[in-house]
């Protein structure tokens, strides 16, 4: 049999079956796949060989301990994080983990640079993108963001090469709201439509399976904010291009104990009814990945006792913060940045602890 090129229904199910002690609810069925409620993120850390080695070890350990969602972006540590994932996947394949068991997402939009920040950013852009006919200086927004079709294609091809993959399971446009500062919403939507056209093309050629938007503020602010994204509009554009079987099936946004807007703020209209972002995603058939689950490490130390108790008193504050995110209704996966194997060891103890039930979770929001 030919080896699979991407995460598959059977492969991810088989992956979950490797962990008979996993608690109910640790693995979730979404978009035809079985995905873990905790994913490993690869954003933070120095651009040096020691951090590279740490990430390779941490990612390898993570997959061996019950996590099959890996998140990255072209610009994370100047492409080093993607290359670390490539190395970890090679280790995992030697240990018998197949490509079809693991779900890999990456993002394109920001200038990636190469291994380290260049001393001359203009010169870098000229050489890597202008001279190669990929993009012009006019395509750049805010000096660092681009989402033209040709640019996104270059980023998809680069990410495939960095991770030695044939297919990326999920390709996000990275922080599309970065484009909103300098343009009106009609121009933005026209750019988004062109981008989605290119992404649908890549689905047909097999270079990506799904696509989505990874955002910071876009889905969490009020509709009158200049940086606001309507999820219904985005899905509408994807439908116009890809039809009912379009590939816009995931969003990523920050969510944690200190940033609860995506659960609480009713800022998204769907068919004339108003929902919070997580509910709007459910209504629109979109799955949710949460970033910054422990507020970039800050929630590893300071969770109040009554919150810990409602969340079942996990051993540490970091685990409690992750338990909050993975227990939130309509969240598929809490992404946690982990460059250290010791953090993987600690956080993945949650794989054997069930997320708290919805009624118990709701107690967090009862006014004292
Ligand atoms: N706009 C976007 O698209 C966007 C923005 C931000 C993040 N993301 C994605 O979401 C992922 C998660 O967010 P994040 O990495 O920014 O923040 P995070 O997950 O909230 O925090 C990561 C930090 O917490 C530390 N940590 C992990 N487990 C710990 C533990 N048990 N005890 C103490 N510290 C611990 C990590 O340290 P070590 O590294 O030393 O293990 C790292 O410094 C990212 O990696 C990225 O993949 C996307």
Describe this structure in words.
The protein has 368 residues and is of the alpha/beta class. It has a single domain (9-365), classed as Alpha-Beta Barrel (TIM Barrel). The chain is 38% helix and 16% strand. The chain is built from 13 helices and twelve strands. It has helices at 9-17, 49-64, 80-94, 121-130, 149-163, 185-205, 231-242, 261-264, 277-283, 305-310, 317-327, 341-347, 358-362, and strands at residues 27-30, 33-36, 38-41, 69-71, 103-108, 168-174, 208-214, 248-254, 268-270, 273-275, 287-291, 333-337. The strands form three sheets. The chain has an eight-stranded parallel barrel with strand order 3-4-5-6-7-8-11-12, surrounded by six helices. Helix 7 (231-242) links the parallel strand 7 and strand 8 (248-254). The chain is globular. It starts with 8 loop residues before the first helix and ends in a 6-residue tail after the last helix. The structure holds NADP nicotinamide-adenine-dinucleotide phosphate. Residues 41-45, 71, 107, 174-175, 214, 216, 252, 291-297, 300, 318, 335-340, 343, 346-347 line the site of NADP nicotinamide-adenine-dinucleotide phosphate. NADP nicotinamide-adenine-dinucleotide phosphate (NAP) is lined by residues 41-45, 71, 107, 174-175, 214, 216, 252, 291-297, 300, 318, 335-340, 343, 346-347.
List the helices and strands and how they pair.
Layout: H1 9-17, E1 27-30, E2 33-36, E3 38-41, H2 49-64, E4 69-71, H3 80-94, E5 103-108, H4 121-130, H5 149-163, E6 168-174, H6 185-205, E7 208-214, H7 231-242, E8 248-254, H8 261-264, E9 268-270, E10 273-275, H9 277-283, E11 287-291, H10 305-310, H11 317-327, E12 333-337, H12 341-347, H13 358-362
Parallel strand pairs: 3-4, 3-12, 4-5, 5-6, 6-7, 7-8, 8-11, 11-12
Antiparallel strand pairs: 1-2, 9-10
Helix pairs in contact: 2-3, 2-12, 5-6, 6-7
């Amino acid at each position: 049999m030919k080896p699979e090129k991407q995460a598959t229904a059977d492969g991810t199910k088989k992956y979950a079956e490797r962990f008979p002690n996993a608690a109910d609810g640790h693995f979730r069925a979404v978009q035809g796949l079985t995905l873990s409620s905790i994913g490993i993120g690869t954003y933070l850390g120095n651009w040096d060989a020691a951090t590279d080695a740490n990430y390779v070890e941490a990612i390898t350990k993570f997959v061996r301990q019950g996590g099959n969602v890996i998140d990255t972006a072209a610009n994370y540590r100047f492409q080093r994080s993607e290359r670390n994932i490539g190395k970890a996947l090679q280790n995992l394949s030697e240990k018998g983990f197949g490509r079809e068991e693991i779900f890999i997402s990456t993002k394109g939009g920001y200038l990636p640079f190469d291994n380290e920040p260049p001393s001359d950013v203009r010169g870098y852009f000229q050489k890597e993108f202008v001279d190669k006919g990929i993009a012009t200086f006019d395509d750049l927004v805010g000096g660092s963001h681009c989402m033209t079709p040709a640019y996104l294609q270059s980023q998809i091809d680069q990410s495939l090469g960095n991770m030695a993959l044939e297919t990326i399971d999920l390709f996000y446009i990275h922080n599309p709201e970065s484009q909103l500062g300098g343009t009106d919403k009609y121009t933005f939507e026209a750019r988004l439509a062109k981008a989605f056209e290119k992404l649908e093309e890549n689905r047909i050629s097999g270079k990506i399976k799904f696509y989505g938007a990874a955002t910071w503020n876009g889905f969490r602010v009020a509709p009158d904010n200049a940086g606001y994204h309507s999820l219904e509009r985005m899905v509408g554009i994807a439908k116009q291009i890809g039809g009912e079987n379009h590939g816009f099936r995931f969003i990523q946004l920050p969510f944690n104990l200190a940033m609860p807007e995506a659960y609480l703020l009713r800022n998204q209209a769907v068919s004339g009814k108003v929902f919070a972002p997580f509910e709007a995603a459910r209504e629109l058939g979109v799955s949710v990945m949460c970033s910054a689950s422990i507020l970039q490490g800050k929630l590893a130390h300071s969770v109040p006792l009554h919150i810990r108790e409602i969340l079942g008193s996990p051993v540490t504050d970091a685990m409690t913060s992750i338990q909050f995110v993975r227990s939130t209704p309509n969240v598929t996966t809490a992404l946690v940045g982990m460059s250290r194997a010791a953090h993987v060891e600690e956080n993945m103890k949650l794989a054997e602890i069930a997320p708290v039930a919805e009624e118990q979770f709701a107690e967090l929001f009862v006014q004292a």
